Amino acid sequence: GRVLSGGLSIRALVDIPRKVSLTGYTNLITSNTPSLTPAISSVTPAHGGVGGGTSISIAGTDFYSSAGVAGALSVTVGGAPCTGVVAASDTSLTAVTPAGSNGSRDVVVNTAFGSATLPMGFMYIAAPVVSSVTPDSGVPGGGASITVAGANFLVSPGVPGVSSVTIGGVACTEVVVGSATSLTALAPAGSAGTADVVVTTIFGSGTLAAGFTYIDPPTISSVSPNSGEAAGGVVITITGTNFLTSAGNPGVSSVTIDGAACTGISVSTATSLTASTPSGTTGAVDVVVTTPFG
Fold it and tell me: Is 28 strand, coil or helix?
């Protein structure tokens, strides 16, 4: 500056550029910006059929974008895309599962800001399978206690999923699911012959064709010869029906004449057997063939 008369000093004002740090502002902005990466807390229901089509609800956070709309939203189960994905809110969405294979699968939600995974969040359960029925036969009057072996009798670990067990289309009673592979029940009444055994769950039905046979009590049409010495030992042939079980095995537990047991019983077919007569008294007496069915 310069000094004028009278001692007045004049100074020039000059703007000097300054370097201003924005680090503090950047940190402030970063620390106050919410995370928009989604998270999954639960999937309901957590299981469904292998054919897909199960409507599921997924709970979590940040399913919306910062603009408050669902943007670039997709859901997969086991890597396969769900259909009908709808975000009801920032914390809830619904979707329809794709087809899959038996077992647990990861559930993944994808948005424009990232993805979230719920490991093994959904379990595919196949329709039940019926492999055997024990015993596989009973009387037409019903009441036989049967054990059904198979698979997929539970809807999720420890939760029975069997809605019905039928034989020949008629419901069994007292169905008890012991595990995913075994259940017990009481056979209903039926008519003589084979019948399908069907186990049904919410995921489908499993059938063992001709898995159970209703067998009438035996009948006797003739005994030849129909007479013999009172001392016994006469080999007789008895003709009738239902001398075999459903498995083709001899089902005759005893043959008696006037209440005394015959010996040497040999069942050749469902309609014929031979036996040796016991000793007895003179006169006409009853001949009785007994099986597990009567």
Answer: helix
